[in-house]
Design goal:
Blueprint (H helix, E strand, L loop, with lengths): L2 H7 L2 E4 L1 H18 L5 E7 L3 H10 L4 E12 L5 E6 L8 E9 L3 H12 L4 E9 L12 E5 L22 E3 L7
Parallel strand pairs: 2-3, 2-5, 5-6, 6-7
Antiparallel strand pairs: 1-8, 3-4
Helix pairs in contact: 2-3
Length: 180
């Protein structure tokens, strides 16, 4: 599927580029106020979170150190999946903001937050661009979130099919999918 094909297949715009930029600025202002007079270590979860993180850190008005991790999953049997991430972030004594494009089950976010705390971070907060609470499997609530969604699958603003559609400046769903 070409990028044009992704835009045509996912033609129902759910969140416009303008809405995204406005909300990212609001989140950045809140984060800047909450971490006033501190340096924050912003750890972005790849691949989906790259656009949200890039826009977010440009709007934050305090010192920021950017790092990235990529979560990897290994099924050990039919009921167990191990989560790994690399590279390991050096966050000892730091205030960390974990940035994800989409929080669904919450399992990966909860694991990453626990792992970062175990590495000696002073604090860990979670910023999610999209929060799909209806899919939650653990009691996790992002500290900062852009938008609540219930769509089964969306593309744009870093999210893809699996790789196409990431460059769309808005969030879209298939024309024939259920509405939010």
């Amino acid at each position: 599927m070409s990028t044009q094909g992704a835009a045509l297949e996912y033609s129902r715009v759910l969140i416009s580029s303008e809405q995204i930029q406005k909300r990212v600025a609001e989140l950045a202002n809140q984060i800047s106020a909450d971490f006033k007079e501190k340096t924050i270590y912003v750890v972005g979860v790849m691949e989906n979170g790259f656009m949200f993180m890039a826009d977010l850190v440009r709007e934050i008005h305090i010192p920021v150190v950017c790092q990235f991790v990529k979560a990897e999953f290994k099924e050990t049997n039919t009921t167990t999946t191990e989560i790994f991430f690399s590279p390991e972030a050096d966050v000892k004594g730091q205030h960390v903001l974990l940035v994800e494009a989409l929080v669904q089950s919450g399992v990966t976010s909860e694991f990453l937050m626990g792992n970062i705390m175990a590495r000696g971070a002073a604090s860990v907060k979670l910023a999610a661009f999209l929060d799909k609470q209806s899919s939650r499997r653990v009691p996790l609530q992002p500290d900062y979130f852009g938008f609540l969604i219930s769509e089964s699958f969306v593309v744009g603003y870093g999210l893809g099919t699996p790789h196409l559609g990431r460059n769309l400046p808005y969030i879209a769903a298939k024309q024939d999918s259920a509405r939010i």
